[in-house]
Design a protein that fits this description.
The chain has helices at about 20-25, 40-50, 90-115, 125-130, 135-145, 155-160, 175-185, 205-215, 230-240, 275-280, and strands at about 1-5, 30-35, 55-65, 80-85, 175, 190, 220-225, 245-250. The protein has about 280 residues and is of the alpha/beta class. Strands 1, 2, 3, 4, 5, 6, 7 and 8 form an eight-stranded mixed β-sheet that branches. The two termini are about 20 Å apart. The structure holds adenosine monophosphate, zinc ion and fe (iii) ion (2 copies).
Length: about 280
């Protein structure tokens, strides 16, 4: 039995609704899933309210963008997954609403930088695309492709939207300790998402970071991930064991916005065992 604990819905930058995700999980025989939208619990909330099919175990989740500890200057994506959180917890919801505000403030700035380079995308077009859901850079990238400004979503990131590129706009995030604490206080399990995407090249730096995060209350590492090679997964597994952390995994499924990633199997060869889900919930 396989699981997938990292899935995005239309509540953030995925293209399937929570109810479509549940249906697909059922069709693909995925035994347990979590919907982990960026900085919002709306995807999990909607999934719970539309009813979870009996064959699928469901963990409410969220993927929170955070700042790394000051001593670790990593250029990649520093994301904390929060599993099994109380979706009504007010501290966590307040934290997430501030992050959503920081996204909203960023969008016009990104569009202005693009416009200065001759790429004309109106905020209204992005809002029409998302139907009022939270806007992420992939939505802007999608419009850039549609309007002929970029060959692909990846190219839009590589040339314009990615960190360090000309239309990149930084935004406010909480420090990781506060983020980890907010997940813990909401009764959840904080897990470091996709360590490979942190872009930390030296193993000793990553090991130090994991030690610091564990001290702050981190409970797990996302070891299984489509972009992690077999060797990396073995290494991250050792790291998790050394620091007494849980092991989780997910595909980061986004539907058509990342068409090469399939729910439950990533690029086709990822198998995330059900036992990891059992360990996770037994540690609650
Ligand atoms: P945002 O929430 O606006 O910061 O955008 C984050 C999303 O952009 C994540 O879901 C990533 O999948 C996607 N993303 C980040 N960097 C890249 C990249 N270099 N190429 C393609 N997608 C990316
Ligand atoms: Zn995303
Ligand atoms: Fe992420
Ligand atoms: Fe993600």
């Amino acid at each position: 039995m396989r699981i997938d604990l990292h899935i995005h819905s239309t509540a953030s930058d995925g293209t399937l609704s929570p109810s479509e995700i549940l249906t697909l999980a059922q069709q693909l025989d995925i035994a347990a899933i979590s919907i982990t939208d960026h900085d919002t619990l709306k995807g999990s909330e909607d999934a719970l309210s539309c009813g979870i099919p009996p064959s699928v175990k469901f963990l409410p989740g969220v993927e929170i963008s955070a700042d790394p500890p000051p001593a670790f200057d990593c250029s990649g994506s520093f994301h904390i997954l929060g599993y099994a959180v109380d979706i009504h917890n007010s501290e966590l919801n307040h934290t997430l609403s501030m992050l959503r505000d920081s996204r909203e403030n960023r969008n016009p700035c990104i569009l202005k930088l693009l416009s200065d380079m001759g790429i004309e995308i109106a905020l209204e077009e992005v809002l029409n695309l998302t139907g009022g859901s939270q806007i992420g850079r992939p939505h802007i990238a999608q419009l850039m492709v549609k309007k002929g400004y970029a060959r692909s979503i990846d190219a839009a990131f590589d040339e314009y939207l990615g960190n360090g590129r000309p239309a990149y706009v930084n935004r406010f995030r909480f420090e990781c300790e506060q983020t980890i604490t907010a997940v813990l206080n909401a009764g959840g399990i904080p897990v470091l998402a996709h360590p490979f995407l942190l872009n930390i090249k030296e193993n000793d730096v990553l090991e130090n970071l994991i030690a610091v995060l564990a001290e702050m209350g981190l409970r797990g590492i996302e070891v299984y991930y489509p972009e992690h090679t077999k060797d990396l997964m073995a290494y991250y597994t050792q790291l998790a064991r050394r620091h007494d952390l849980l092991i989780t995994g997910g595909t980061d499924f986004h539907g058509d916005i990342k068409p090469e990633i399939k729910m439950g199997s990533g690029k086709g060869d990822l198998f995330i065992p059900f036992a990891l889900y059992e360990k996770l919930i037994s540690s609650l």
